[in-house]
């Protein structure tokens, strides 16, 4: 087939920040995301999709490299990503694409590739290799958006970050308010970034583009413009799943004790309010605003889809919608992301490809999937091969309507809570930085949490879906604990870095085996 006759292949790879998978179920009587629901009706929803790491930096390092965090080792915001690893953008370039970014990736450059004093070593808001920046917007790069606000006549606060304050609020604000943001909905950060992508697309309908589009929301601060700040009634939102008191929650495990102490500050959620000091009604308001921010994203998702349909590009475009990680939102008295509870790592995933079989549209896949699967999926769709070290598997068979004979029956994630020798959880727990790691393996029924230097946790999700009863010290469940600990070890062994491992030098030359790694058996 001549080049001119090849079908156009475009990639719209969308991530949000801090959208938990069950967010739309928190207010079951409301339809706050009709455009995402419409996308799901045209594509495939992966119901049990999990990110392999949190917070943002390690989550995105995993999402963009297809590597587990114990392989790439960029485990905290600011931990450099080793330059020897490839990523989806570098591999897409080999296929002739020029991947562009709208938003941010929280990527930390390998300082060994720089010169002394390089400004890129003073931030974790960097750019991964292979990706070209078109429009930046994140908590450290608000200036492009704020410049446009100033041009539109807004009076900006002296401290630019205070654009997220409520009118009349101060740094000593003690209560959470549902008041509107200082900016109108049409001028919000979410609207601004969407406008930038629509501008980029105007003259590119005949191109094969690759866009990585990253909305900052529903990341804190939990403040939204009218009408989204009051769109969701507080009484329509379910209450957090937690023990009666924070003291009971802290008593569960030394990690939770220390982590909840760390969250006892107004700085933790960047909202000038300590979430642990809020009343039950104020917490409901905060959860409602979180859902309002999601509704705002959904409205702009609709704008993107409508543009692609109007230009005829919809049937040329792979669309992936997911999030880097979730948000605990008060469950177990925790906020933000991290730890071992599901709301932090269970995230949405919807994929829609052109030419999908009609019978697969609207399909809901109940099999476990992970963020490491996104890169192989994109690469297969654009005709590129994943690199040997990548840990995930392409999801395209599910999208074609198939059910793979062999597939994982568990998911894995890692949370690293080191602070590199300066207080925090290291000091509170008396640990070295390299002892500050937990690993989770989650099956249908069982969930096992292994700490490097702290006691483990074991939950029976069939009888305790809220994760309130730790069975790790129960003699009756000793065999289950041992089985899962062994399975976790086998998982890490199976997915060890293998760039050259399956290569052999022989008299006849270089021999290389390529193929899937397989899966860790559930019964060892």
UniProtKB/TrEMBL annotation:
InterPro entries: Alkaline_phosphatase_core_sf, Sulfatase_N
CDD domains assigned: PMH (cd16028)
Keywords recorded for this protein, A-Z: Hydrolase, Metal-binding
Domain Sulfatase N-terminal, residue spans: 10-383
Any GO MF annotation of the entry: sulfuric ester hydrolase activity
Signal peptide residue numbers: none
Membrane-traversing stretches: none
Cellular component terms (Gene Ontology): cytoplasm
Stored SUPFAM superfamilies: Alkaline phosphatase-like (SSF53649)
Matching PANTHER family: IDURONATE 2-SULFATASE (PTHR45953:SF1)
Protein name per the record: Sulfatase N-terminal domain-containing protein
Pfam families noted in UniProt: Sulfatase
């Amino acid at each position: 087939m001549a080049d001119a006759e090849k079908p156009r292949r475009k990639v719209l790879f969308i991530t949000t920040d801090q959208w938990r998978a069950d967010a739309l179920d928190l207010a079951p009587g409301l339809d706050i995301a009709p455009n995402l629901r419409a996308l799901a009706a045209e594509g495939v929803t992966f119901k049990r999709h999990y990110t392999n790491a949190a917070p943002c930096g390690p989550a995105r390092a995993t999402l963009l490299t297809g590597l587990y965090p114990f392989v790439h080792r960029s485990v905290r915001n600011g931990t450099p990503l080793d330059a020897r690893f490839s990523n989806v953008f570098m591999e897409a370039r080999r296929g002739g694409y020029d991947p562009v970014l709208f938003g941010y990736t929280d990527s930390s450059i390998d300082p060994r590739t720089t010169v002394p004093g390089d400004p890129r070593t003073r931030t974790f808001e960097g750019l991964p290799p292979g990706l070209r920046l078109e429009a930046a917007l994140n908590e450290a790069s608000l200036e492009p958006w704020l410049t446009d606000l100033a041009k539109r006549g807004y009076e900006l606060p002296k401290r630019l970050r205070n654009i997220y304050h409520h009118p009349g609020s101060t740094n000593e604000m003690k209560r959470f308010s549902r008041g509107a943001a200082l900016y109108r909905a049409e001028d919000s950060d979410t609207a601004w970034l969407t406008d930038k992508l629509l501008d980029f697309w105007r003259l590119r309908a005949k191109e094969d583009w690759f866009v990585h589009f990253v909305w900052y929301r529903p990341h804190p601060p939990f403040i939204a413009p009218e009408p989204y700040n009051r769109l969701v009634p507080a009484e329509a939102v379910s209450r957090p799943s937690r023990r009666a008191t924070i003291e009971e929650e802290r008593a569960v495990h030394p990690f939770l004790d220390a982590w909840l102490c760390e969250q006892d500050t107004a700085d933790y959620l960047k909202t000038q309010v300590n979430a642990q000091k809020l009343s039950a009604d104020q917490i409901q308001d905060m959860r409602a605003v979180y859902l309002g921010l999601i509704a705002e994203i959904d409205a702009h998702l609709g704008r993107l889809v409508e543009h692609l349909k109007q230009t005829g590009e919809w049937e040329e475009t792979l669309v992936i919608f997911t999030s880097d990680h979730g948000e605990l939102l008060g469950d177990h008295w925790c906020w933000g992301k991290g730890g071992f509870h599901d709301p932090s790592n269970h995230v949405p995933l919807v994929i829609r490809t052109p030419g999908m079989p009609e019978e697969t549209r609207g399909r809901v896949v109940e099999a476990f999937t992970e963020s490491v699967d996104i890169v192989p999926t994109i690469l297969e769709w654009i005709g590129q091969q994943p690199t040997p070290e990548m840990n995930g598997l392409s999801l395209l068979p599910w999208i074609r309507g198939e059910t793979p004979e062999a597939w994982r029956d568990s998911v894995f994630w890692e949370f690293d809570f080191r602070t590199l020798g300066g207080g925090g959880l290291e000091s509170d727990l008396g640990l070295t930085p390299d002892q500050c790691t937990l690993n989770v393996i989650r099956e249908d029924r069982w969930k096992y949490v292994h700490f490097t230097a702290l006691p483990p946790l074991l939950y029976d999700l069939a009888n305790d879906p809220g994760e309130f009863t730790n069975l790790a010290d129960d003699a009756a469940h000793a065999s289950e604990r041992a089985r899962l600990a062994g399975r976790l070890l086998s998982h890490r062994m199976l997915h060890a870095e293998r760039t050259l491992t399956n290569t052999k030098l022989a008299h006849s030359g270089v021999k290389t085996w390529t193929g899937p790694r397989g899966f860790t058996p559930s019964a060892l």
